[in-house]
């Protein structure tokens, strides 16, 4: 209960002003394509040089919280996921926006983000010591199985058929092998210098999601301009809140999956949203509605990716190990003020530690308030004529891809992947499984190689990868997930066959 | 009105192209390329040591940091060697032994001849760490175990052909033992996590990160791979003191360089100003607070250090 004593510090005039500034700034940065939470926090670090440690961290914490949520804005309205965390949000969110329900989608996403986010920070406050042990429990073999679990999701994610989903997943896995390999020192598929560092995930995301859309808009030409003006439906915040309460399943699954997965160092943030989305879909009676603008999809994805924020800081704050790229940047922000995370932080600088954590708690709520305020305005984006919209999205895409690491190479990569995806989409493939392959490939590969190196030097491959309760548990979950996919596929086939026979 | 505007643009353009004149150099902000991501140790230190560049007694112009991460630094250094303008406005941060080891192993477009060093700001030695509850209490224990169980002692480090890997090779060579080096993806932090979580029996890591982990009570530091003990860790003996012939080849030196072809008068100006800029007391305070050891070297000293490193690394990596 120690944290309550430090609530006052958050509300001192300068701190609160920074909190407000960080939240609003974070929402804007988050909504800008290409500026991931990691980038946004890194950009703000130089500003904290002049501030006290506590104030600097409040600014960074607020920015982290709200950029994660802000990513939903471009994901829903422009179909450009700002970071891997927002991929799942585009699936249903953008479809809703196209139907004129952008305001509703944004309201739901901010409310769900706030609920997930507050839960995540509360976990950070009350369960940090327990969670730290859990974060350490995942070694290479467990992370390998976890990545495989992610692969089993690929088939069922947003595709016409399991086969097409798996095929796009494979393309993603192949793309992930491009570049220098840090573990074996090998070079793979580097045909051009700009591929040396591999495919940058943010540039790939922008290319795969936004560019096909731009091309489709251009392909339609100007003739349909008048016919397609979408009526933006107004939606009250109260109604959105009610809807959230009526969908406890999506909210619960999203929040819990997000907080558990967010904890695992090196994996968490990127796949939390997608796994939560998939789980919610599997447990939902309206499976068919997912991908067609179903509010449950938005709720699950957004509650998961904000629930991950609090737990993702556990390894950093307790063990001084940054578990995610953003945590690594925050570590820099702490060090610059001479504060070492770990026991030192909580014992000798409790004012810094708790004020920082409290500010994230309040930041979640402020983020929600401002987010809801802009939701109504932002949804009008759908009224912009398509020809203008295409140009704007293309401009933002180029800007976003370039800004990740100030490299034109990333822009070329984005453009190539975008054109490729445009044609793949025509044949019923979709971008989400491809991206999941791109994210999971390196995790599975690196952990398998590392694990096998350790295994060969110690107990041997068999016991290392197949033994131990956590390995066995994860394997059972993998088997269950595969079995479930096979079962649904067979069932739908039976239904289809029956329909065909009747007709 | 329009004419004025065009004239102004023309003047600005001339300023851009003719800016390398030594007298008025620098007359616009500089940029420094860091080949690791924002928030990493190199980036973090680069931002601190360049924060006083705008002062009148330094360059009088600010330095902006541009990150070009990827492939263990190769992406950034490839760009710097082949595409960066050699006009004195594009600086780069180097990490030794990383870029030298990479150029020896091949597959990159740079070598020590592609760059002109300006000054060195930091030196972060590699240390050998074990988990706090490990049975090892000195390098002797580690070597004894490795002798009894050849190839069985697993220890982590941040990737191949980086300081950690060099230190690992040197320790194995000095002790005459075979151990299992496990390179991690995700840098020193992932390697440290593997040690703390008990996935590996030990690890090579940065002194600054290990110091922090020891303060947090998570690891024990058994030895420093440097010529002298560190001021941060006065109680931890060097490898040499423990009978292992390991020099400072694995120490991660960080500093500033420019591409080959930069005008000599510009190099001269930078080489005279930059070391003094690093000596600024504000810089020293921030570096110390972050647990980052400083080690300022002039251009001539760095040229010598690069040559010596290249020699040692060629011998060490010849067997791989």
From TrEMBL, chain A:
Pfam families: TctA (PF01970). Keywords: Membrane, Transmembrane, Transmembrane helix. Residues 17-436 form the DUF112 domain. InterPro entries: DUF112_TM (IPR002823). This is DUF112 domain-containing protein. Signal peptide: none annotated. The chain crosses the membrane at residues 12-33, 108-128, 134-155, 195-215, 316-340, 352-375, 387-405, 434-458, 464-487. It comes from Falsiruegeria mediterranea M17.
TrEMBL record, chain B:
InterPro entries: BUG, Bug_dom1. Pfam families: TctC (PF03401). Keywords: Signal. Residues 1-22 form the signal peptide. The keyword Signal applies. Gene3D superfamilies: Bordetella uptake gene, domain 1, Periplasmic binding protein-like II. SUPFAM superfamilies: Periplasmic binding protein-like II. Belongs to the UPF0065 (bug) family. PANTHER family: BLR1237 PROTEIN, TRICARBOXYLATE-BINDING PROTEIN. This is Tripartite tricarboxylate transporter family receptor. It comes from Falsiruegeria mediterranea M17.
């Amino acid at each position: 209960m120690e944290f309550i004593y430090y609530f006052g510090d958050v509300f001192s005039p300068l701190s609160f002003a920074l909190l407000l500034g960080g939240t609003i700034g974070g929402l804007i940065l988050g909504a800008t394509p290409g500026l991931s939470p990691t980038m946004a926090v890194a950009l703000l670090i130089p500003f904290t040089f002049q501030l006290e440690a506590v104030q600097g961290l409040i600014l960074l914490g607020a920015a982290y919280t709200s950029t994660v949520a802000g990513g939903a804005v471009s994901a829903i309205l422009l179909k450009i996921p700002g970071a891997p965390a927002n991929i799942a949000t585009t699936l249903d969110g953008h479809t809703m926006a196209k139907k004129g329900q952008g305001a509703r989608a944004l309201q739901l996403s901010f409310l769900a983000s706030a609920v997930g986010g507050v839960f995540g920070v509360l976990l950070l406050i009350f369960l940090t010591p327990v969670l730290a042990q859990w974060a350490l429990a995942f070694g290479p073999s467990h992370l390998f199985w976890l990545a495989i679990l992610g692969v089993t999701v690929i088939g069922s994610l947003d595709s016409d058929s399991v086969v097409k989903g798996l095929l796009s997943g494979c393309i993603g896995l192949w793309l992930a092998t491009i570049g220098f390999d840090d573990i074996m020192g090998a070079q793979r598929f580097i045909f051009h210098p700009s591929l040396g560092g591999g495919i940058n995930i943010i540039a790939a995301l922008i290319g795969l999601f936004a560019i096909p859309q731009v091309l489709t808009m251009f392909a339609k030409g100007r003739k349909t301009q008048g016919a397609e003006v979408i009526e933006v439906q107004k939606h009250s915040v109260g109604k959105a809140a009610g809807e959230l309460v009526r969908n406890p399943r999506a909210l619960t699954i999203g929040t819990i999956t997000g907080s558990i997965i967010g904890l695992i160092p090196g994996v968490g943030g990127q796949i939390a949203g997608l796994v939560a989305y998939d789980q919610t879909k599997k447990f939902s009676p309206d499976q068919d509605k997912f991908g067609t603008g179903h509010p449950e999809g938005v709720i699950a994805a957004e509650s998961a990716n904000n629930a991950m924020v609090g737990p993702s800081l556990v390894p950093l704050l307790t063990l001084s190990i940054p578990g995610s790229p953003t945590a690594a940047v925050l570590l820099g922000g702490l060090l610059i003020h001479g504060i070492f995370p770990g026991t030192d932080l909580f014992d000798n600088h409790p004012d810094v530690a708790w004020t920082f954590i409290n500010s994230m708690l309040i930041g979640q709520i402020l983020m929600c308030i401002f987010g809801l305020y802009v939701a109504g305005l932002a949804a009008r984006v759908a009224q912009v004529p398509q020809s203008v919209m295409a140009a704007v999205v293309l401009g933002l895409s180029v800007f976003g891809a370039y800004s990740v690491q100030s490299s034109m190479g990333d822009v070329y990569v984005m453009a190539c992947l975008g054109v490729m995806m445009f044609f793949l989409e025509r044949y019923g493939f979709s971008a989400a499984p491809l991206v999941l392959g791109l994210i999971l490939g390196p995790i599975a590969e690196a952990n398998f190689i590392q694990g096998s190196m350790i295994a060969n030097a110690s107990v041997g491959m068999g016991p290392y990868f197949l033994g131990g309760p956590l390995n066995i548990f994860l394997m059972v979950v993998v088997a269950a997930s595969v079995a479930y996919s096979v079962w649904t596929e067979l069932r739908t086939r039976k239904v289809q066959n029956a329909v065909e026979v009747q007709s | 009105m329009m004419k004025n505007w065009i004239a102004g643009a023309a003047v600005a353009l001339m300023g851009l192209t003719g800016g390398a004149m030594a007298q008025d150099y620098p007359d616009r902000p500089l940029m420094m390329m860091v080949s690791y991501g924002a928030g990493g140790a190199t980036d973090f230190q680069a931002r601190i040591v360049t924060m006083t560049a705008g002062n009148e007694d330094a360059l009088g112009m600010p330095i902006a940091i541009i990150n070009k991460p990827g492939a263990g630094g190769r992406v950034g250094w490839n760009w710097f060697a082949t595409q960066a303008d050699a006009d004195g406005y594009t600086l780069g941060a180097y990490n030794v032994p990383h870029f030298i080891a990479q150029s020896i192993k091949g597959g990159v477009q740079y070598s020590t001849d592609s760059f002109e060093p300006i000054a060195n700001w930091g030196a972060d030695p590699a240390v050998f760490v074990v988990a706090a509850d490990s049975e090892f209490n000195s390098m002797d224990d580690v070597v004894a175990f490795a002798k009894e169980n050849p190839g069985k002692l697993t220890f982590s480090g941040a990737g191949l052909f980086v300081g950690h890997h060099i230190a690992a090779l040197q320790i194995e060579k000095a002790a005459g033992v075979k151990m299992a080096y496990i390179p991690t993806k995700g840098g020193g932090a992932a390697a440290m996590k593997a040690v703390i979580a008990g996935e590996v029996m030990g690890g090579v890591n940065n002194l600054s990160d290990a110091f922090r982990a020891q303060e947090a009570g998570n690891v024990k530091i058994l030895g420093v791979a440097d010529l002298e003990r560190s001021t941060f860790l006065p109680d931890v003996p060097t490898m040499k003191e423990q009978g292992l012939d390991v020099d400072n080849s694995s120490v991660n030196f960080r500093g500033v360089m420019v591409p080959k072809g930069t005008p000599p008068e510009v190099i001269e100006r930078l080489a005279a100003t930059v070391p003094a800029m690093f000596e600024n007391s504000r810089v020293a305070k921030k570096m110390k607070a972050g647990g980052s050891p400083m080690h300022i070297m002039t251009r001539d000293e760095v040229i010598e250090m690069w040559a010596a490193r290249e020699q040692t690394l060629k011998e060490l990596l010849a067997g791989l």
